[in-house]
Design a protein that fits this description.
The complex is a heterotrimer of chains A (347), B (96) and C (167). Chain A has 13 helices and two strands. Chain A is mostly helical and 347 residues long. Chain A has one domain. In chain A, strands 1-2 form a two-stranded antiparallel ribbon. In chain A, helix 8 runs antiparallel to helix 10. The model of chain A has no long low-confidence stretch (mean pLDDT 82). Chain C is globular. Chain C folds into three domains: 79 residues, Four Helix Bundle (Hemerythrin (Met), subunit A); 43 residues; 31 residues. In chain C, helix 1 packs antiparallel against helix 2 and helix 2 runs antiparallel to helix 3. The mean pLDDT of chain C is 78. Classes of the chains: A mainly alpha (347), B mainly alpha (96), C mainly alpha (167).
């Protein structure tokens, strides 16, 4: 029974996240068109139905499926094939510790809407996301292409640097909350939005968000890809479905990052002004759970929109500016934040 | 018991790698292997005696491994800049 | 059973680390064996250590090593084994002798009374480990921070030196 519930959770959540990816791609295309005042996808149609450009995704899938899959002659074949799998697998496995709704009591059994409730909670996220650099690094190396190698090396330097600031920003949140379990952290944030960590830990919130941009290799931190400098960086040699896996991994990373951000700083599944006890007391259980999950999804999509918004608004950093921002601005700020938080907490 | 044999095997592999390989970076990795073998024994004894001291020792060990890797790699990069190779055979004299 | 599966994934990649021709492949196998060791730590109720193993070893140290390998662009090296003769033979034999003594001592300890006592339930949670680290082991902890500082300064000095000479 336990096992069945766990398998059901894994399947439902994985399918939900994978289905968010086309929605995000559509949002990205439409959003970029609106932001930069140009035409978005408006040609692909089935029997004249365009769904506002959404059909374009289906056309894309067919294009990527039927394209020739090229493996360069001098590439290291096994690693070349393995790299996109690592990237996508890591991006999706981050989601395992995210709580989607308040735990529900059915008789004796407490049903948690979270795949794995680990007692190391947030460290799991840091550990897994630190592995995502391998996929990029190995993709860059195994392609046997100078531009790809540059992309991989840039990615590794960038991700190591920003992980430091990310970890430090998280430490102040952990000190403030006194817990590392994500479900406890969400519960403790309460239903009033001024109690959410977004207002209680504003500096940590901003630092974490910037690091999240850097970790997902999105503009303004997309120097590992840098189309105008190193062509496409680490995935330059990839084609067909292998390229599609990188493409999906980028969006899966955005979804996972938004979920972490929402759980940590925007109150997770907390419906504003309606605590879980009130919801579960006055509504049927299923409805309460659905309401919390919907609110969570709305917040996540808002965060994803933030990613897209920033990407099409800001230009790319130069490499030295990126390192300066990481080491000389964010790390000291995060350290100051830790000191201030510990003083306030111990008072 | 099995855990100790496993740790000893890993340690032996590390020592062998250190003795036999010529590539400086692979030698550094062999040292990391040896360090990780000690971690296994620490955690195992922490379990056997029911105290957490062994696990704390592992945490301290991690920091040491990080220091060793950082300094070791810095030295290797400098050696590489000097001679353009990381083969240990080229480093017979200490003074240039 | 779980132990033997994990042990397989520790030992075989560990051997591949030292026999691989290409340092990048060596590094990848080292990541695999370190990852399997993290699984072993979970088996031994040391969750915190397991996660930190992935975070620090796999996530930071090995990325650094891979970064250096790729920066120096060290592709295939010849797999000419170093002949273990002379001084190195003596040193190696010494190491293995020391190892034999150590393993004998470990054997004695682990078959002694302490090992036969029923294993107590421990949980390597963050609270418990952290408390021990910041009370009983606070001096080594602080000393390690000094070591870290020394390592940072050392590596910065090492990497800067060459530039000064050139200019």
């Amino acid at each position: 029974m336990e096992l069945l519930i766990d398998i059901a959770k894994v399947i439902i959540i994985a399918v939900a996240v994978l289905n968010l990816i086309p929605v995000l791609i559509w949002m990205e295309r439409k959003g970029s068109a609106y932001i930069q005042d140009r035409r978005g996808p408006n040609r692909a149609s089935i029997l004249g139905i365009k769904l506002g450009g959404f059909i374009h995704n289906i056309a894309d899938v067919f294009k990527l499926l039927f394209k020739e899959d090229i493996i360069p002659n001098k590439a290291h074949k096994i690693i070349y094939i393995l790299a996109p799998m690592i990237v996508l697998g890591v991006a999706i496995s981050i989601i395992a510790v995210i709580p989607f709704a308040a735990p529900v009591k059915i008789g004796e059994y407490v049903l948690k809407f979270q795949i794995a409730d680990l007692n190391v909670g947030i460290l799991y996220i840091l550990a897994i996301s630190s592995l995502s650099v391998y996929g990029i690094l190995l993709a860059g190396w195994s392609s046997n292409n100078t531009y790809s190698l540059y992309g991989g090396v840039r990615a590794s330097a960038q991700m190591i640097s920003y992980e430091v600031a990310m970890g430090l920003a998280l430490i102040s949140v952990i000190i403030y909350m006194g817990s590392v379990r994500l479900d406890e952290m969400v519960t403790m944030q309460g239903a009033n939005f001024w109690d959410w960590n977004f207002f209680r830990q504003p500096l940590a919130c901003i630092i974490f968000l910037i690091c999240l941009f850097a970790e997902t290799n999105r503009n303004p931190f997309d120097i590992p890809e840098g189309e105008s400098e190193i062509v496409a960086g680490y995935h330059l040699e990839y084609s067909s479905m292998k390229f599609a896996m990188f493409f999906m991994a980028e969006y899966a990373h955005i979804v996972a990052g938004s979920m972490i951000f929402v759980s940590l700083f925007l109150g997770g599944w907390q419906v504003p002004f309606l605590p879980a006890s009130v919801l579960q007391g006055h509504l049927p259980l299923l409805l309460a759970v659905l309401m919390q999950a919907t609110i969570f999804l709305v917040k996540v999509i808002f965060c994803c929109w933030l990613f897209i918004w920033v990407r099409w608004t800001l230009p790319r950093f130069r490499y030295d500016q990126l390192m300066y921002l990481g080491w000389a601005v964010m790390v000291p700020l995060a350290l100051i934040n830790i000191v201030i938080t510990s003083i306030l907490v111990s008072r | 018991m099995n855990y100790l044999i496993l740790a000893i095997v890993i340690f032996c592999i590390g020592v062998l790698g250190l003795l036999v390989r010529r590539n400086l970076i692979v030698m550094l990795m062999s040292v990391e292997l040896m360090l990780s073998a000690t971690n296994i024994t620490f955690v195992y004894f922490s379990k056997v005696w029911g105290v957490l001291d062994g696990q704390v020792a592992v945490l301290l060990n991690f920091v040491m491994a990080a220091c060793e890797a950082a300094v070791g790699l810095a030295i290797i990069v400098q050696l590489f800049k000097l001679k353009g190779t990381v083969d240990i055979g080229n480093w017979r004299e200490l003074k240039k | 059973m779980a132990f033997y599966i994990i042990a397989f994934f520790i030992v075989v990649p560990a051997i591949l680390v030292i026999v691989s021709r290409n340092p990048v492949i060596s590094a990848i196998w080292l990541v695999v064996t370190l990852f399997a060791q993290a699984a072993l730590f979970v088996l031994l109720n040391a969750e915190l250590v397991a996660v930190l193993q992935v975070l620090l070893y796999a996530g930071a140290i090995m990325v650094l090593i891979l970064f250096v390998i790729m920066m120096l662009n060290l592709n295939k090296t010849s797999l000419k084994w170093r002949a273990v003769t002379g001084e190195r033979l003596i040193l190696g034999l010494g190491a293995f002798y020391l190892l034999a003594v150590l393993s004998f001592v470990l054997w004695m300890i682990s078959t002694g009374p302490a090992a036969n006592a029923p294993a107590k339930e421990i949980a390597g949670t963050i609270e418990a480990t952290g408390k021990l680290l910041l009370t009983k082991y606070v001096v080594p902890f602080e000393l390690l921070s000094v070591l870290l500082l020394a390592a940072i300064v050392g590596s910065v000095v090492l990497s800067k030196k060459q530039k000064v000479k050139e200019t």
